[in-house]
User: Fold this.
Amino acid sequence: MNPSTWWQLWGAAGCAALAAALAQRPPRRLRSDRWIPEVRESGPDVDWNHRWRWLLAASAGVGAWAFLGGPLGLVAVPVAATLTWTTAGRAEPAATRRARERSVRELPHVVRLLGLALDAGAPPAQALEIVADALPGPASDRLRPVAVRLRLGADPAAGWAALGQDAALAPLGRTLGRAQEGGLSVAEAVARLADDLARQAHATAERRARAVGVRAAAPLGLCLLPAFLLIGIVPLVGGLLTSLSW
Assistant:
């Protein structure tokens, strides 16, 4: 590789790094009107797509230059680097995804306990606080800010709308909102939701169990195939060959 090619390669890498740096936006401030903050699961940080996206962007820029080459390649460097940087930045962090999935799993228990608290006569804000204290976890971390705002006098309709927009607690928020708008009993609506979520969780568990059986059939068949060939097919073929030799 001649010196001019090396200079072009380093120039492409520099352009890619510059494009990635320019594409980086400053962190957004937490909005004061946001009811539910972003919840992340505790544990090791494995969001390599966020941590190393500068390397991904630089690699994409260098790859674009190496594939196209010449002036067109230099033009494609910042484009490829910026697109890679933006795409990697928009990916959902693994900790946030784990917290959301755990919140979905906890939702039937949260709704069941919330229905019991409401049935006992607790107001919605106090019932949410009772649930958050009794069942610590990502779902309760999402409920607690709503309960605090309701206790301070916020509009319940806005709180239910915020829950309805949450990726994990949307069924609860929609149920509470419909009950308030229609003048229905909140305790009865939450109890019906708890029954529906329990049935859905049971159906999901059965579906996953059946899927595990289907996925395990192929590896099990591959494990038994050599034994079937050695015990059933090889003696039969050997017997046929022996009879033909006579």
User: Anything to note?
Assistant: The mean pLDDT is 76. Residues 3-24+33-91 form one domain. The chain has two domains: 3-24+33-91, 97-201. The two ends are 69 Å apart (CA to CA).
